[in-house]
From TrEMBL:
The organism of origin for this protein: Absidia repens
Signal peptide residues on this chain, from the entry's feature table: none
InterPro entries: HAD-like_sf, HAD_sf, HAD_SF_ppase_IIIC, MDP_1_eu_arc
Pfam families: Acid_PPase
Name assigned to this protein: Magnesium-dependent phosphatase-1
GO molecular function: acid phosphatase activity
Amino acid sequence: MIPKTDKFEVPKRLPKLIVFDLDCTLWTPWIDYTYGPPFIYHEDDNSLTDKMGEKLVLFKNITAVFTMIQSFPDTKIGIASRTGTPDWARMALKYFQIPELGCNLHDSIHYMEIYPGRKTQHLTELEQSSGIACQDMLFFDDEQRNAEVKKLGVHFVLVNPAKGVTMHQFQSALQQFDRQTSTTQTTLQF
Ligand SMILES: [Mg+2]
């Protein structure tokens, strides 16, 4: 299904790096709750099955969201995940396709931090590897405990784990980022 984006006006100020958690933000369920590889990719519903035939499903708006980000010339994509099975996560990112772009998710991501730990560490590492300040990052994650990254200046968006990132939420977050950074700049000028 093609999301209704025709009325959306891309804001003037965009994040320089948009970061996503993986489990229950891009896909469901948690990848370390699956039985693991070998995974089989299913093109019809953009899902994987694990070695026991259980599904790992990409939420339906994710490919459209990634496609929209690719249309922003100065915005990169990052991943911050605390999964206990980073190798499985990277494998899944390579299997999941973005039909609109003719590539897989992994190929569309510029920076990745995937290992157990606190998200403040992941985001700090992303700042160092990308050279992009935390204040210029927008971060989507389904767990409230990870909102602690706000103390770094990261713009945090809490995702509904039953839906993942939706196009509506993504566009609203871009508009809010634009308003917040606009306010910050006005404050700094005075
Ligand atoms: Mg998660």
